[in-house]
Amino acid sequence: MITARAAATFEPVGRSVAVARGFVRDTLQGWGLGEIVDDAVVLTSELVTNAVIHAGTSAEVICLREEDTVRVEVVDHYPERELPLHDAGQPHGNPDREGGRGLLLCAALASRWGVDYTAADKRVWFRLDLPERPVGTRAAGPALPDAALPVAAHRVHVAVIQVDRGGAVGSWNEDATELFGYTAEQVVGKPLTDLAAWPHTPGTGTGIAEALQLSRWEGSYGMRDTDGRTVAVYASHLRVRDSDGEPSTVCLLVRDHERAVLQSPPRGHGGDGDRQNGREGQTADPFEVFIGSPAPDDLDGLLQRTVERARDMLDGDAAYLLLATDDETELEVRASTGLPSARQRFARVPVEAGSGRYGSARMPSVHEDLTVVPGAVPLLEGTGMRSVVIVPLKVEGRLTGSLGVATESPGRYTNEEALRLQFAADRIALAVERARLTELERLRRGSLSFLVEASDLLAGTLDRNQTLALMAQMTVPTLASWCAVYTVAEPGSEPALSYVLHEDEERIDSLKALLGKVDPPDPVPAPGARLWTAPTDTAHGSALRTSLRSATLGVDDDPAPGSGLATAAAVGGETVVMPLVARNRVIGMLVLGKPTDERFRQEIIELAEDLSRRAALALDNARLYSERTAISQSLQRSLLPPGLPEVPGMEVEVIYRAAGEGNEVGGDFYDLFEIRDGGYGFAIGDVCGTGPEAAAVTGLARHALRLLAREGFAGPAVLERLNAAILDEGARSRFLTLLYGELWPQPDGGARLEVVCAGHPLPLRLRPDGTVEPAAEPQPLLGVMEDLELYEQHVVLEPGDVMLCVTDGVTERREGTRMLGDDGLADALSTCTGLTAGAVAARIMRTVEHFASVPLSDDMAILTMRAPG
């Protein structure tokens, strides 16, 4: 059952995402659901971004309060654009794909989520479960001395007004009569909007009627009394429903200077400060927090609202606000209105830059005509602004920022306007500083979390290409709009463009083509980020040629993806290069860029530098691993026979599996080679242990067998000399089980074999009638005793017979206490009558794999020979 509902619509502009976050935060906090606010705001931000930025339509955000959950819906009007869902077969998604991250957040944070399509819109929704709450105190303040208590009249009047769902007054208490002069009979049944003097601010569409529909609201406005005067009040609205389910709103109102009676939590300004400044009884300050204002910790929203109100207060054409950086040595552009803010956002200038360049940042200043003193305010150059007033933001005497209002007319502002703006700046300075410090703390925590996650991801792979992809995907769009990674193969070699990523996937190819036209940045090992203007200059040159061609030929110059204009817009902002230094050499460069006229924040640059150091080491580790893997695989391949020869009149098949990740050869080995005309040697063996040490003995045994057999030695002599060679290895020697034999195909079909089984699992012969029997007898293994007396055994394969030779990795396959064993192998072989040698080997391999669910833990070799029937 839905117990409360709130909805708002946002235009398809970037600012709407922040406003939508504030709407959801205010709504859920108003419902007293602070525990889920952060998760809801994160998910709303992602979904509204998809709607207003990617889908390009307005978005409606609907908050629904249910009994045990909260449901938030984001509706856009572009149902044709499908959601970028990840492939179900790839749980972590394609590393080259950027879309769909918001939906992964829904899956991670929400208890349930989904999407509903209609012919006109698309509705993405998520649910968050409400935590169980113990009964207790929601908030309490400390005990204060009497002198610290807020001052109020000896008789505080609290007007209690109840308004029905249509906005009409339903009840009016005696204190309301005392405050405003109206009796209950005069106002009951009339709309409250007739009495309320609601503040209006450009860009804010919420009025008293909308505020009365919210579940909870708190703030300042005015009420007209019987004399027509406006009484400034502080109000708390609570929406309730009676036993019949009929909703209404209860409004508690006090005089604005007595706000401490109702205010919770304190706003950080107003209250006593009004009385100390002699402003008791005046209407609300232009910078007062009211409906539609951002939350105190929403710094960007607070700054944007500040410059808008400053502009309106002085009837200016533009306004801007700069904040001091973390070390307070520079001022950074953080908000503006009426100016190309994207071009200057996060631009920095020193606090004391000399005469005419913010040199007066610590004191109010008025420029009556900027054309008389060119360059006095660099931010306003080329904007057409003539007159400007600038005041500092100070907290406890410390410069924290600067606020300016400008107009296109000269001589508009005087010291009187400077005093008014300074007074407003003093009112907002503390709230701005609190929000700035909160943002810095949040950035620090977010940076630590980001670096921890990045380190985990980079440490989780040793693949070079995947490392390059991770580097780019971690920076775009979190740190930059686009990213490129250059790699340097050897010291002194030319950097190569290895990976390119843009937040708009349609621009990746054009960006790659653009970077291919410019010389790569120099691989300078000096730490820190440096500016790189080549991509921006080249993009702007291409855009200029496109515009000239359009003007000359009269063709359409719309910035379609891939065009010069589109590329210039995509990479036209600030571009920085950070060296990737690992083990005292430059192995590449990480390039980050912004779209048209945007700049990087210093905190983002510092975070990117930290990331580049971690990424460089991960990339070099991947390089070293790739090199060593290639060397290891090359050496391992040399231990296996290059291929199986064709044996006339016989079918031969081999299946080989080495245990361990990345191993191609282990302690098991096999071989089949021609001894002389008409005769072939074959071997299958098992060196004690696995890994490189066992592989070394494998190489010794295989090459020694070939050499000795081709010298004409018989099987026992071959193995006795191999035994001596193994013992000569001393401490590096390992014992070896080996089945060696000579194969002589016969002209009338079948084959004759001379076999020596030195400690190895016995070969099995399968007859056409399904009979399975050992084809040799066991003899001592190699590498243990010096004097061995070995002998050959003669085996005749009749047409249709199969000889199966395996290593102990087959017979010792285990599942708990069960083992396949010799009997299990014989049973499996008995089912292979009539099959080819390859089919027999494949069936035995499937039997081994299906016998246990755990991966193979031992090397395994299977050799089958069959005399065709």
From TrEMBL:
Keyword Transmembrane helix in annotation: no
Segments crossing the lipid bilayer: none
Domain PAS: 160-190
CDD domains, A to Z: HATPase_RsbW-like, PAS
Residue segments, region Disordered: 261-282
PROSITE patterns: PAS
Pfam families recorded: GAF, GAF_3, HATPase_c_2, PAS, SpoIIE
Skewed-composition ranges (Basic and acidic residues): 269-278
UniProt keywords, alphabetically: Hydrolase
Family annotation (Gene3D superfamilies): 3.30.450.40, Histidine kinase-like ATPase, C-terminal domain (3.30.565.10), PAS domain (3.30.450.20), PPM-type phosphatase domain (3.60.40.10)
Hydrolase in keyword set: yes
Coiled coil: none
SUPFAM superfamilies: GAF domain-like, PP2C-like, PYP-like sensor domain (PAS domain)
Protein name in UniProt: SpoIIE family protein phosphatase
Organism for this UniProt entry: Streptomyces hazeniae
